[in-house]
């Protein structure tokens, strides 16, 4: 279908939630919460019964943005550089931008922090949110807007939605692509008090993993989903008020299975698993007047399919330089006559893999399940269907061999620094290596900081590639007690260096515990201060950027969160 057949270029709003399970919706059958706006979105368009994503965050983002399995694009981890999508991959926003769309992303990026991995380097004209895999504080948090550090306003999901509503209003006369990757219900389990009060004593549904359930965590997650639902309702109302509903395609999905054992339709597994419960997600697509309301698609589909599907719906005839793994799903709900193949969808994470087709699942142990009669994966049927079992094992092994060939065992990509087209450069604690006494605040690198910096033998290093000569203003986000002031810092790379002294105290005050509804595993945040270290000139080339103290007169240097270099 051409764009002229659809009355011009349609707007697209793609909503992605973080760690929400398939079962965290009332339309899925979960009576412990109410999601009227998301339920209405499902009923107003097409709902996919068997839609699959990756077991964890960044691989799903890579797949929906590229139309290719995540291991083909260099994504092998969720932190410390392994979440980055290779720069020779073409992302969905880049195609829409080239076709005249206004593009924006608001929320959790999780596909690379430093430009050109940054969303502003991947086709997004406007970005507000954070680039890490998780964030340590959801109320008035430190965020960024197009690379510049800013302070969020209120609860982060409400704030992101406000930005989305403003973007829709500002671009009502232009075709737009709005990517809204919400960061909840990912931990920390923070949600406004009004939602938590409704759920703190809520009775939950029983399920196969009830003995392993953390009920406080589950209640907090469902409260966060109800907040998501309210915000989706606000956004849809703004689209309606702008008169754009009939020219806007709206999608909703999750990035992996639930981040805890809770009710999930009796499926096996949770986040991180390649079983049904770890990778099955809702997918709702609404396009008023173009997609018939109430359609359910039972064909197997995947996040890799969104790239070709959205371009097709927008009437964009895009020819990829690299082969896409995804398929255009639009014939399945536009009722076009098409011979649909019995296809396979491959899932992989952490040396675990599974394979699905329209009827069967081959799990990580190469056990075969018939999902038509046993969606909960209770009965192994390998012996009952030997030919299918053999065929699926062969296909799965081929995928594993492709993965091994395309995913390098060593990541040779440095962190880019000083791109001439981007003013701001961030080097967070997440991406650094600590030496000596310095310790990370949590085993979870995302949103962590460094502490126990006590000696001139201690240092922090980043493997960087300076992309162009330049001079930069250097700032450090830190805390330091009054009685520990006076350390002299040196930042250097090759022959270029800069020195400065820690003169202003910033009290190390942990924040977030008062908003946490259940105890967290990751780091708390601090109210970080900002010190100007000075100016440094760097020259094009690769090497090690080192930050160390050359004088520690009072036994401690600082707690360190972030280094920024702003091009002068």
UniProtKB/TrEMBL annotation:
Residues 10-316 form the Sulfatase N-terminal domain. GO terms for molecular function: arylsulfatase activity; metal ion binding. It holds the Pfam family Sulfatase. Transmembrane segments: none annotated. Keywords: Calcium, Hydrolase, Metal-binding. InterPro entries: Alkaline_phosphatase_core_sf (IPR017850), Sulfatase (IPR050738), Sulfatase_CS (IPR024607), Sulfatase_N (IPR000917). Belongs to the sulfatase family. This is N-acetylgalactosamine 6-sulfate sulfatase. It comes from Algoriphagus lacus.
